[in-house]
Each structure stands twice: as structure tokens, then as C-alpha cells.
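Blinded run. Sample ID left blank on purpose so nobody reads anything into the name before looking at the predicted structure. Input follows.
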Amino acid sequence: MKIQTFDSAFNAILEPEEAKIMRYRSDMMSQIIQNIKKNNWSKDEAIEKLKTNKQTINFLMTGDISNLPNDLLEKLVATLG
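Blinded prediction complete.
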């Protein structure tokens, strides 16, 4: 039996185009989380700086990508500058 390897978990379980979208979303989410951590923002500070709500910050910090649509992630990245 030959073992398959993949560039990402998304490639292993999704069709190529869908995997590409999920990697894009994951990259945006990581960028936002890294920025929050780099600046040592509390949840309240992150809400204020990102002009969002507590639920969105909770989804980000728990890695719940399914509840963060592309347009919201793009808006948050744009808010970071």
C-alpha cells in the first residue's frame, strides 16, 4: 500500500478549489490571531481595534473557521491595515 502525502489537511479531504479557499481563509484567520497576540490585546481590546463583537473574537481564538465567512475575515484583515 502506497502512502499519500499532502501539502495541507485541506488537500487531503477537499477538492482542489475548495482546499485553496480554505487555505486562504485559514491564512487570514492566522494573520488576525497573530496580530492580536503580537499586540497583547485582551478580548475587549481586540473587539475595539477590529471593530467587531465578542462572538467573532471567540470564534477566532478557538479556531472556529466555519463561523467566519470570507467577507468578515477580509474586513478584519483590512481593519488591521
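Unblinding after everyone has recorded impressions. Residues 10 and 22 are 7 Å apart (CA to CA).
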